[in-house]
Amino acid sequence: MSRKDVIESRIQEALSPSVLEVLDESHRHSSGKGAESHFNVTVVSEAFAGELRVARHRRIHALLEDELAAGLHALTLTLLTPDEWRARSEQAIASPGCAGGSAHLARGR
What we know:
By secondary structure, the chain is of the alpha+beta class. The protein has one domain (about 5-105): 2-Layer Sandwich (GMP Synthetase, Chain A, domain 3), CATH 3.30.300.90. About 35% of the residues lie in helices and about 20% in strands. The protein contains five helices and three strands. It has helices at about 5-15, 55-65, 65-70, 80-85, 105, and strands spanning about 20-25, 40-45, 75-80. Strands 1-2-3 form a three-stranded mixed beta sheet.
């Protein structure tokens, strides 16, 4: 099973989302195509009602804890209730550009 499939399966099982989109964006980063290291994940679920943004993020990170320990490097997360999703005109957050591992060099590290 691919990492994308694992992410989708765990989120679907835990949150029963009305919208679930998992995009593998590894090809946009220095890890390269097929690395399954960078994902943009959009989840719209009633399960997020009443939760702060940080709690939503923690919930997703807990679901994917073993994947994060095994090479999943970055997640761009859009985690909304159905009302919040409609208020945003059903738009996810775009992932930031990749520094290609050179960000540490630019900061003198």
